Amino acid sequence: QVQLVESGGGLVQAGGSLRLSCVLSGRTFSSSAMGWFRQASGKEREFVAAIGDTILYADSAKGRFIISRDNIKNTVYLQMNSLKPDDTAVYFCAARASIMVLRTTRYDYWGQGTQVTVSS
């Protein structure tokens, strides 16, 4: 059974930083593309960043967020810097049964999400 467990969300002031973590179990991590998505209240889920055969970022994340992975710990990270109130959302980790990254939500496995709230 494939599971994704996110952690690291919380409340932070604008300009602050958070690091999200996501652990994958039940599937070979090194052959899985990993993505981060977010969903703000009343809005659709949107792509943030992904890492696999390459690294992709949403325009809103470029220059502020860094995605990385540790294939020994089966963990993907999202370092979020210079946070803005607009970054407030539930952040979801996702995995694909392929190393090829996608910007769409066509990932095979999803975590439960972790809340990130940025106060102004």
Structure characteristics:
4-stranded antiparallel beta sheet, 7-stranded mixed beta sheet, globular, 120 residues, mainly beta
Walk me through this protein's architecture.
The chain is mainly beta and 120 residues long. It is built from no helices and eleven strands. It has strands at residues 3-7, 10-13, 18-25, 34-39, 46-51, 55-57, 65-70, 75-80, 89-95, 109-110, 114-119. Strands 2, 4, 5, 6, 9, 10 and 11 form a seven-stranded mixed beta sheet that branches. A four-stranded antiparallel beta sheet has the order 1-3-8-7, with no helix packed on it. Strand 7 (65-70) and strand 8 (75-80) form a beta hairpin. It is globular and about 40 Å long. It starts with a strand and ends with a strand.
The strand count comes to 11
Number of helical regions: 0
Oligomer: single chain
Q: Return the structural class.
A: mainly beta
- Beginning-to-end CA distance, first to last residue: 40 Å
Please mark out the parts with pLDDT under 50 across 5 or more consecutive residues, or reply none.
none
Percent of residues in helices = under 10%
**Major sheet description:** 7 strands, mixed
Average residue pLDDT? 97
Sequence of secondary-structure elements:
EEEEEEEEEEE
Q: Characterize the overall form.
A: globular
Rg over CA atoms, rounded to whole Å, is 13 Å
The portion of residues forming beta strands comes to over 45%
